[in-house]
Amino acid sequence: MITLRVNAQPDGPPPAELMEAIAKLGQEATESGVLLDTNGLAPSAEGARVELAGGRLTVTDGPFAEAKELISYALYQVRSKEEAVEWASRFLRLHRDMWPGWEGEADVLRLFGPEDFAPPGPPA
User: Fold this and answer.
1) DSSP state, 103?
2) Can you give the pTM of this predicted structure?
3) Rounded CA gap, 116 and 78, in Å?
4) Cα distance between residue 44 and residue 64, in whole Å
5) Is the Cβ–Cβ distance between 68 and 105 less than 8 Å?
6) Which of 29, 1, 37, 10 is closest to 95 using CA atoms?
7) Taking the CB of the first residue and of the last residue of the chain, which one, N or C, has fewer CB atoms within 10 A?
């Protein structure tokens, strides 16, 4: 899973050329069989943070004080962390090259599946 955060965004909407390049990259990832899902996320003002600290649960409604805003995610099925980093890097390079002033970051996170928690089989 790759999550995207924006640190600074120029005034106005993203350039049409950027949106076309993002769509092309998404199509390439879909056709190669690695992109499973992608979508935008609502602003943190519409969310809540649930925290466990010192044995106590607290819930804090957004918006959150951080300057960075989590804005979208993409779910990939790749063979390695390096492959996921490459897809995330390509996405961020598009923003760098086509939308001057836009700054952001992408977190590459591994999702575990049921096979990661299967009990070991009998000894061979």
Assistant:
1) E
2) 0.80
3) 15
4) 6
5) yes
6) 10
7) C
